[in-house]
Design brief:
8 helices, two-stranded antiparallel ribbon, 171 residues
């Protein structure tokens, strides 16, 4: 494991052994989860996870993901966007909405169905949220750096190039 962390290569067998979920690990995780539930509510656990979970494309936490993918704050996400990001958590790379819009939309629809089945939203709300496509954007660059992309670029508001940004706390 130290060789991998130091940037070395590992054989497929070594990689599988390091990432395998043994029964001992599963028991330890179940015990940890039970202890955590004694100290925190499920809502608090979920909130904590959403604040640190990896959503792909370098976005850790729901706020960073909302800004990265939709150029809005997390509290401004609509149902379609929120369900898409909730689905991304399962596999941030393969479900990245910018790279795999079809897979991401499929997972989003699963999230919407689960929400409707649990009574969190109505079937009509789930159906309306499924209507919105996840669009693929072409990868663009700024010089030699990747540009930050949003799924809905018309909502992205940037200052003109070369403009000085004022500190809103200083007058």
């Amino acid at each position: 494991q130290a060789a991998i962390e130091a940037g070395g290569e590992a054989s497929e067998e070594a990689r599988a052994a390091l990432t395998a979920r043994s029964w001992k690990r599963k028991i330890a995780e179940a015990h940890l989860a039970a202890e955590l539930e004694k100290q925190m509510s499920k809502d608090d656990i979920l909130t904590g996870y959403l604040n640190v979970g990896y959503f792909g494309s370098g976005a850790y936490g729901i706020q960073a993901a909302a800004r990265r993918y939709y150029s809005v704050d997390a509290d401004k996400l609509n149902l379609t966007q929120a369900a898409t990001l909730a689905g991304v958590l399962q596999s941030p790379v393969s479900l990245d909405p910018r790279l795999n819009p079809e897979r991401s939309a499929g997972r989003r629809d699963q999230v919407l169905n689960a929400m409707a089945n649990q009574g969190m939203i109505t079937s009509a709300q789930a159906q309306a949220a499924r209507f919105h496509p996840v669009r693929r954007l072409e990868h663009r660059t700024q010089g030699d750096r990747p540009a930050q992309l949003a799924l809905e670029p018309e909502e992205l508001r940037l200052p003109p190039r070369g403009a000085r940004l004022a500190d809103p706390g200083v007058r």
